[in-house]
Amino acid sequence: MGFMPAVELSYIKPKNQRLIAVSIDGEQASPSLAQAKQLRELDKEGKLNGDVIDGILSEKKKEDRGVIISMAELEKYFGKEATPAKMKEQIMTLLDEWKEKQPPELAKAPKKMEKDK
């Protein structure tokens, strides 16, 4: 669980924290920050119970749009002396070059995917 969701959950009554822990274990999913805030607000209003918790934690979270590449993975290509800024600059340059070599129909694919959302 992330730090910020954990902070939000720390303000919830201990009885409800236990219910949340059981639900997290059952759903095998920890709450996002938005879900934790929602749980905290419902707890404050006295509307939090096991069913509400299960419902919130079973909601599909918004997909994280970030890509994470570890430093260990990047060091295989850049060495230990390269700065993150230099790595990013080189990666973006290579991606721009790659994109220019793609057929026109592939170059338009990201825009089509944006509309599908």
Description:
This protein is an all-alpha fold and 117 residues long. The chain contains eight helices and no strands.
List keywords for this structure.
0% strand, 8 helices, 117 residues, mainly alpha, elongated
Strand content: under 5%
The helix/strand series, from N terminus to C terminus, equals HHHHHHHH
Q: Tell me, what's the shape?
A: elongated
Strand tally is: 0
Low-confidence stretches: 111-117
Q: What structural category arises from helix and sheet content?
A: mainly alpha
pLDDT averaged over residues: 84
**Distance between the amino and carboxyl termini:** 27 Å
Helix content: 55-70%
The biggest beta sheet is recorded as:
none
Query: How many helices does DSSP assign?
Result: 8
Work out the radius of gyration: 21 Å
Mind sketching the topology for me?
Blueprint: H1 3-10, H2 14-27, H3 33-44, H4 50-58, H5 71-78, H6 84-100, H7 104-107, H8 109-116
Task: State the gist of this model.
The chain is an all-alpha fold and 117 residues long.
